[in-house]
Amino acid sequence: MRIALVGIGKIALDQHVPALADSPDWDLAATVSRSGSVPGVDAFTDIDAMLKAHPDVGTVSLCLPPVPRFDAAVQVLRAGRHLMLEKPPGATLSEVHVLADLARAQGVTIFASWHSRMAHGVAAAKAWLAGKTVHKGRIIWREDIRKWHPGQDWILAAGGMGVFDPGINALSILTEILPAPVHLRTAELDVPANRQAPIAARLNLSQDITADLDFRQEGPQTWDIELQTDAGHLALRMGGNLLEVDGTRVDGQDSIMGEYPALYARMAGLVRDGASDLDLAPMVLVADAFTLGQRTTVDPFDF
Amino acid sequence: MRIALVGIGKIALDQHVPALADSPDWDLAATVSRSGSVPGVDAFTDIDAMLKAHPDVGTVSLCLPPVPRFDAAVQVLRAGRHLMLEKPPGATLSEVHVLADLARAQGVTIFASWHSRMAHGVAAAKAWLAGKTVHKGRIIWREDIRKWHPGQDWILAAGGMGVFDPGINALSILTEILPAPVHLRTAELDVPANRQAPIAARLNLSQDITADLDFRQEGPQTWDIELQTDAGHLALRMGGNLLEVDGTRVDGQDSIMGEYPALYARMAGLVRDGASDLDLAPMVLVADAFTLGQRTTVDPFDF
């Protein structure tokens, strides 16, 4: 199946292009980007021009930042092509609902991808938790914004989501593995005096689960989820890649494919089945945190 | 059908109790409130005690503020009773999703009521707009917080929603009458230096619709929605109660019942049909505004 990539930046070159190159399902037929391109692949700067020139491209994958993504997504769906979206699937929930309606009306697949759900330990964690009751838990998601997003001012601007840009990965795993749905109870947001979006956040969720999200972590980085159940203790470390049960590493996950190859395999399956996958639960929790959150102004932040 | 009211405050006494007294469908059998009661009606201070004492009460209507409402709603649903919620149906979207799942599992009705959708002009406005295309529009929703919410500090606290407490009424009408779904593009939020929630907001929605929400309006109050279409101009004034088409008042709406009687008639129909009505579109737009909104600190506000 022929696919086009829109937005040839760091995440596209690091993850999407290699995943497509190795995929038995997909052939990268075109790119759309203001400045980026992929050697040997037909390159466009305008999405409508690409769609007209490539009726052979049945699927388009968008790697744009959330804010410009909506208009591009509408163009793809109006042209009757299947649509895959990087996380989060939009800048707002209401725009994603509009995309869902449009995809349904056009009879095409829409896939809101959450790459962290494809991390090596997640499926095994979900299987282990099935049928158990979670009594307590905590997410610790602490990384260095200067290392992972150097100079990316947009991420701390209104709509950039701040620390929820990485934090939504933790929430995407949590909402995937928990046996019962979780909801937000309270939230505290730390917003730098010279920015609009929080650089740190603490959440209290139902099932006595807390989340400690921080973008100011220098030195070792932490991406851990720990859950206590009626039948033992589970930990997912390294962003969902390392599973421990009762303190012991659970092996046998090394053969599973990487996050982005797994996402493209999933998209191929959805297109073949005429299905869609648009789970907004991680994004709903973030919107809830912005709605409910108690804001504290903290020290100005500069890259 | 026998019903109980939980939360006997101003809105319950002003609206819910008279609506139930006049209803051919409902018999108010019990109340639950820390301090309020209704003469001649069995009064409780604890919801579980009421549910145990009144197996005859098949339906419970909650008039509590959003934050304490969730735990009460869970008690009602776990007891297998039908549930009616004042607007907004919860403090967060994620908790309302939990309630929806629980109602489905219990096989009972859940109704998220939006009283402004029952204003006299709304159904006629929706009928007139059907099949038309909206080119441009504006909401002007300006009222005096000191008049309508004297001393209610919670409304300007985190989770209190600020100016969206009235503004969500406008959004509930807009999402009801528009022929095509609307989404948020940008938002500006004015937050008093001594408060957490916005006292004014300006929204840019799709279909070129703007919203000007302000809680600081002294003198005449304004609750207007104006829409320009390919086939004329519509205005809903007085909170949805007065309909004008091309500048001329559209008559014939005087026989329609009041907002709260209409809500209870709707609830009776849902219970009889074994159906539910849980449209979160107005709440999604508010959550989106908090997520995307550019915040400006404005003068401190005191009641």
Automatic annotation (TrEMBL), chains A, B:
<dbReference type="GO" id="GO:0000166">
    <property type="term" value="F:nucleotide binding"/>
</dbReference>
<dbReference type="InterPro" id="IPR050463">
    <property type="entry name" value="Gfo/Idh/MocA_oxidrdct_glycsds"/>
</dbReference>
<dbReference type="InterPro" id="IPR036291">
    <property type="entry name" value="NAD(P)-bd_dom_sf"/>
</dbReference>
<feature type="domain" description="Gfo/Idh/MocA-like oxidoreductase N-terminal">
    <location>
        <begin position="1"/>
        <end position="111"/>
    </location>
</feature>
<dbReference type="Pfam" id="PF01408">
    <property type="entry name" value="GFO_IDH_MocA"/>
</dbReference>
<protein>
    <submittedName>
        <fullName>Gfo/Idh/MocA family oxidoreductase</fullName>
    </submittedName>
</protein>
<dbReference type="InterPro" id="IPR000683">
    <property type="entry name" value="Gfo/Idh/MocA-like_OxRdtase_N"/>
</dbReference>
